[in-house]
Specification:
Blueprint (H helix, E strand, L loop, with lengths): L12 E2 L5 H11 L3 E6 L2 E7 H7 L12 H4 L13 H10 L4 E6 L2 E7 H7 L1 H15 L14 E5 L6 E8 L2 E3 L1 H8 L1
Parallel strand pairs: 1-2
Antiparallel strand pairs: 2-3, 4-5, 6-7, 7-8
């Protein structure tokens, strides 16, 4: 099942120059736990309720004085709406994230959360539980799924570099350089 089938298309954004106070009020108004940070219509990061607690409250910083760009999580890990839910779950587990923005043609088109994944079906819940169990052992093995080799952004499994063009090969997410080396 592709990510497109469960993603929420209503994503609330915020400018990196807005303050944490604005972010908190926006999260409360829209009843969401995250905001995608946008600059010039491009998703550049994410800020969550946890970020506000860990990076502000715990340090006694004033929300009206702290810019979102200073506390957002970046670079943003994203996937294509064509990616399988299984691979998206693997990426979320590997990167210890609970929200995954969906990018198509360099535009933000949606987001999936761990709650979305849990609500899909009992069958996917079993897969998620299995992935969590496997992740506890620090080794992730997900059954191979044939796909169109989707491209997304995140950290390369081989060299650790951030890339906007990761490709999945043999269960690894590779940047262009590592992908070319492996295919040579």
């Amino acid at each position: 099942m592709p990510v497109r089938e469960i993603m929420s298309t209503e994503v609330i954004g915020i400018d990196p120059d807005d303050t944490a106070e604005v972010a908190a009020k926006r999260m409360k108004h829209y009843d969401v736990g995250n905001l995608v940070v946008m600059r010039n219509k491009k998703a550049i990061g994410i800020v969550t309720e946890e970020d506000l607690v860990r990076k502000l409250v715990s340090k006694n910083l004033l929300p009206e004085k702290v810019k979102i760009g200073d506390i957002m999580t970046s670079p943003l890990i994203t996937v294509s709406p064509k990616m399988s839910l299984t691979l998206a779950m693997k990426i979320m587990l590997k990167n210890n994230i609970r929200r995954l923005p969906i990018i198509e043609d360099k535009k933000l088109v949606g987001i999936i959360t761990n709650k979305d994944l849990l609500s899909v079906s009992p069958e996917l819940n079993r897969i998620l539980i299995d992935l969590i169990e496997i992740n506890r052992d620090l080794e992730i093995k997900v059954p191979e799924e044939k796909s169109e080799n989707p491209v997304f952004q995140g950290k390369c499994d081989r060299c650790g570099a951030f890339s906007e063009n990761l490709r999945e090969v043999e269960g690894m997410l590779l940047c262009e350089g590592c992908y070319e080396e492996m295919m040579a």
